[in-house]
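R.M. (postdoc): so does anyone remember the format we settled on? I'll just put the structure tokens first.
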């Protein structure tokens, strides 16, 4: 069953917001924190969200009927990046656990690491 126009509009709005968030993450981690790896992942998330936005807009305009092979390609790339993101999450989780990089047991003394002491920032949460 096809989604309604309202559902498509909400999905397009969400992907547009996600695209803006991904690009802002890219800018913040590039300019403020100077960590290109994290910035690259934020930029990639923004690009993929923009890809989803374009896909929804093209679906709303009924452009896909003339280009179904392209839709299949979009689908497979989406599945590929989903699998890569799950594998990456699991890898970083295993690395954090095996290297004992959790903040548990420090009594809220702040977060060290490459960004310095952020204890004042994290005390708000």
């Amino acid at each position: 069953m096809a989604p309604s126009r309202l559902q498509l509009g909400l999905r397009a709005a969400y992907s547009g917001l996600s695209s803006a968030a991904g690009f802002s993450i890219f800018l913040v981690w590039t300019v403020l924190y100077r960590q290109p790896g994290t910035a690259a992942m934020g930029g990639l998330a923004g690009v993929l969200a923009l890809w989803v936005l374009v896909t929804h807009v093209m679906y709303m305009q009924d452009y896909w009927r003339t280009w179904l092979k392209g839709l299949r390609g979009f689908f497979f790339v989406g599945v590929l990046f989903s699998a890569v993101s799950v594998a990456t999450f699991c890898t970083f989780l295993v690395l954090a656990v095996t290297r004992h990089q959790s903040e548990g047991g420090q009594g809220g003394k702040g977060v060290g690491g490459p960004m310095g002491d952020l204890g004042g920032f994290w005390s708000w949460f």
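R.M.: ...and that's the designed sequence above, right after the tokens. Also worth knowing: The chain has two domains: 1-63, 67-99. The chain has a mean pLDDT of 82.
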